[in-house]
Amino acid sequence: MPAYRLLRHALLPLLLAFGQALPAHAAEGSAVLERIRGEGEFRLGYRSASIPFSYVADGEVIGYSNELALQVVEAVRRHLQLPDLPLRLVPITPHNRMAMVSSGRVDLECGSTTHNREREAQVGFSNTIFIAGTRLMVRADSGIRDFSDLVGRRIVTTAGTTSETVLRRAFNSGELASATIVSARDHAESFMVLAAGRADAFMMDDALLHGELAKRGEGGRWIVTGTPRSYEAYACMLDRSDPTFKKVVDEALAGLMRSGEAARIYARWFTQPIPPLGHNLNLPMSSAMQTLYATPNDTPFD
């Protein structure tokens, strides 16, 4: 028998034994799952100040989206049969979040990221986890109640967000041609620009605006107002070329929604006092969210 055949016969039992020793899901064609297994950790991207979705309070990452993400991590641990798989939390920003996902530096990002068709060219998205409307925060005595009152005004929004895109489209179309658009680094800076009088209105997703008020306990001075300019479907970002990993993520989220656990998580972050100051956002679940939980999906609004 030729030498190469002898070698193959000698190695075949070892190869079969090695294959049987691997967990059932070890070689199912998911680059992300294989990377997680190979590197021995799950890397979750988080936002530091996106209240109440993903933020840091008392040195701990918390929030509605973060709680859902932790359940996804557990689902991945079960899928890979690695119950002790370490979790590494990686800070991200609105500016670098898509690059962090598309480059593989994080395996999943769950915060307050809008899923839209334009972004699908760069990253993939999970099932929707939240539906928001873009509105305005203004001083209670400003007289501004809707977008039609913004003619000649200064409007601040956070750079790199869909709110900035919507505002600039309105400006370029001539609808808000006399307005001035100010871009801030993050939501906290946007609020500070508004509070300092350098802007008349802060445009952002309504839940995030309420989150900024909860962070500061200044609800009496400010109101969130205006007919929603657009609706946003928040989702977790992931590798767009890995349907197997997406399936694991989507099934975990759908299970939370259908079981009622997602509704309990929602109540904890939107209808009860939350850190750091113990203020309540007082945002009961909308009919759109109820429908989402009953029929989980990954469909964006645009």
TrEMBL record:
Q: Which domain of life is it from?
A: Bacteria
Keyword set includes Transport: yes
* Entries under SUPFAM superfamilies matching the protein: Periplasmic binding protein-like II (SSF53850)
- Signal peptide positions are 1-26
Q: Does the keyword Hydrolase apply?
A: no
> What Pfam families does the entry give?
SBP_bac_3
List the GO terms this entry assigns under cellular component, sorted alphabetically: extracellular region; outer membrane-bounded periplasmic space
The alphabetical list of record keywords is:
Signal, Transport
GO BP, one annotated term = amino acid transport
Q: Where is the Solute-binding protein family 3/N-terminal domain?
A: 41-273
| Similarity comment: family membership | Belongs to the bacterial solute-binding protein 3 family.
The name of this protein is: L-glutamate-binding protein /L-aspartate-binding protein
